[in-house]
Amino acid sequence: MRDLRKTSIRRPSLLHLLCAAAIFSLFLFATQTSFSGGNRQITKINRPDVQILSDFQSSVQQCVANRGLGLTAQIIDHCNLILKFPEGTNSTWYNEQFKIFEPLEYKYDVCEAILLWEQYRNMTTVLTREYLDARPDGWLEYAPKRIAQLGTEKCYNRTFCEEHLNMLLPAKPPFHPRQFRTCAVVGNSGDLLKTEFGKEIDSHDAVIRDNEALVNEKYAKYVGLKRDFRLVVRGAARNMITILNGSDDEVLIIKSLTHRDFNVMIKRIQNPVYLFQGIVLRRGAKGTGMKSIELALSMCDIVDIYGFTVDPGYTEWTRYFSTPRKGHNPLQGRAYYQLLECLGVIRIHSPMRAQRKHDWSDIPSRETIGRAHAAAVRLKKNQAGEAGDLGQFRNCKVWGHAGPYGSGPVSGSPDMSDVRKNSNYSKWEVMPFEKLRKAAQNHFAQMEGVSIYKMDGNKLDDLVCVKHTMKSEV
C-alpha cells in the first residue's frame, strides 16, 4: 500500500517534467524557425560592415596616436572607443553640478558621430521661413522659442510672431552646402598670440569668427583681417553695432534667441543678420566655437580651426583680445576636437602643431570615411529592423514644399532705415543660382532641390526636408 502511494506520487511529477520539456522544445523550435532566416540575413549583411567599421576604428586610433599630442584611443568595439589623456594630466576644471574634476577619459560612439557629421555636410544651419512653414508646430510652438521676452509659450497670432522675426528670417536658405571650398573657424583663445596665423587664415574662401573677437591691425598677423561670418550669443548680439563696425558685409548669425532690441539695431545696419538653426551636442565640446564648426561644415568642403583649446598644458581660460570670462572644460573640448579631426570633419591648427608641415595623410580619406559612413547606415538600419534602401532622404521626418530657388520674400520690414534699405544686406538671399560655386549647384541637383534642416536635439532621424521646385519642373 505504501509502495502504491509512492508510485502514484512520482508519476505526476515525471509527467510534468516530460510535458515541460516537450513545450520548451516546441518553443525553441518555433523561435529558431521564425528568426533563423532573418538572423542569417543580418549576419550576412553585418559581418562585412562590422569589419569596415573595425578597420576604420583602427585608422582613427592611429590618427589620434599621431596627432593627439599625448591622447590615445582605446577601441572597445567596431563603434565605440575611449579617448584617454596621459596619467598626470592637470585637470583643473571643477564641475559644480557633479562635484568632480574634469575626467581624463571620454567615451564616444564613432558610428553615431560619422552619421551625425556627414549629415551636417548636406544641411542648412540658418532659420528660414520655409522651415517654420514646414514644421507642423513651426509658427505656433517653435517660433516663440526663438523670441526672447515674448511673454507667451505659443504664437496663436502668427502675425505677431512674424513681426519679431521678419528682420532676420529669409524665405529660403541664404547659404548652401559646398558653397565654399575652404573655411577658417577662428576661436578666441590667447594661444593665437603665440603663432602668426594671420595670412594663412585670410587665405581661406570664408572666415568665421565668434562673439566680440577683435579684428584690427593690432592683431592682424595673429588672426588675420578677413571677416565673412560671425556667430554670436545673445549677450554679444546686444553690442552688434560695435562688433560689426568696419565691415558692412560680415554676416552676423545669432546663436540662440532674437530680442526686440536686436530688431531696432538691425534696422540701422547694413549687414546681413540671421538666426542659427542647429542641434544640441550633449557629449561634444561646448560653446560658440562648436556651433561655428557646425555652421562651417554646412557650407564648406574643408574646415580649418584656429584659436581653440587643443594643446596640452592649458590650465586657465584665456582670450587673445581681452580679460577672459568663465570658460568651458578644456579636456572635454580637446578630446572631442581631436576625434573630429580624425573623422575628417576638421583640421586643427595650434602653436604646438605649427612646426609641422601641412601633412594630412594620416587622417582617413574621404573615400575611407564614405565607406565607414555607408556601413554605419546599413548597420543602423539592420538594428532598427528596416529593409531595403531608403535613399538619401531616409531620415526626413517632416516634408514641406516651396517654390523655385530664389523665390519668396527677403528678410526685412517696411520701417527699416534708409541705410539698410539702400544696402546690400540681402545679397545672399537674392544671389542667382548660376552665381553659386559649381560644387554647390551640383549638390543642389544631387539633392533633387531638397533643403534639409535639423528638427530637435541631436537625433539623427529628426529632419525637416523642404522640396524646391526645380527649373526642369517649372
From TrEMBL:
One Pfam annotation reads Glyco_transf_29
**Keyword Lipoprotein among record annotations:** no
An example GO CC term for this entry is: Golgi membrane
Classify the main location: Golgi
Subcellular location, in the record's words?
A: Golgi apparatus membrane
A single GO BP annotation from the record? pollen germination
Record bears the keyword Signal:
no
The record's EC number reads: 2.4.99.8
| Superkingdom of this protein's organism | Eukaryota
Name any one GO molecular function: sialyltransferase activity
Key words of the record? Glycoprotein, Glycosyltransferase, Golgi apparatus, Membrane, Signal-anchor, Transferase, Transmembrane, Transmembrane helix
Name the InterPro entries on file.
Glyco_trans_29 (IPR001675), GT29-like_sf (IPR038578), SIA1/STLP5 (IPR044782)
UniProt membrane topology term: Single-pass type II membrane protein
Name the family the entry cites.
Belongs to the glycosyltransferase 29 family.
Name of the protein: Sialyltransferase
Top-level taxonomy: Eukaryota, Viridiplantae, Streptophyta, Embryophyta, Tracheophyta
